[in-house]
Amino acid sequence: MFRKLIPRLSVRSIYQIDLQAMWQTGVRGIITDLDNTLVGAKHPQATPELTNWLRKVAAMGFQIVIVSNNSELRVSRFSDPLSIPYISSAKKPGNSAFRRALGMMKLNPEQVVVVGDQMLTDVLGGNRLGLHTILVVPISPKDEGFFTRINRRIERYAVSWMRRKGLMNWEE
């Protein structure tokens, strides 16, 4: 069961993702979480650094869709000024929002990566559909809600088990 929680790649932040290498392997779309992946959970807008990164992503030809379990209000306030399509109230790790994002981009699973900060939502959801998954370190864990804090405890247990089994070897 824990194997579905293992990301293909783990990095400290989105800025460490090798976009050129992804493009060369045929990736054309990015499904990304919002809170604690792109910005802190309490930050309503993109930072200048994030805005530049998103411009670079678009200039390279990638499509991007934000898929968030957060509310329409939260996600739209972030996404609309950047003209980034989104799916709010996504109910990750369920398949529906990930499938909708694939349809919005008109891409196949092998052409898309999922980027997120949670194993139990982003990684599990992406892996269940055969998408390439990238786990990032949460930007601002102190701002997380109740259910996310519960997920983090489960994730710590899963990571510990996976390390003992030799399935995971990155630093937290």
Query: Low-confidence stretches at least 5 residues in length (pLDDT < 50)?
Result: none
DSSP strand (E) fraction? Answer: 5-15%
Order of helices and strands: EHEHEHEHEHEH
Secondary structure: helix percent:
25-40%
Biggest sheet character: 6 strands, parallel
- The largest beta-sheet arranges its strands as 1-6-5-2-3-4
Give the helix/strand class: alpha/beta
What's the average pLDDT? 89
Between the first and last Cα atoms, what is the distance in angstroms? Answer: 21 Å
What is the radius of gyration computed over CA atoms, rounded to a whole number of angstroms?
Answer: 15 Å
Instruction: Work out the helix count.
Output: 6
Total strand segments:
6
Basic shape = globular
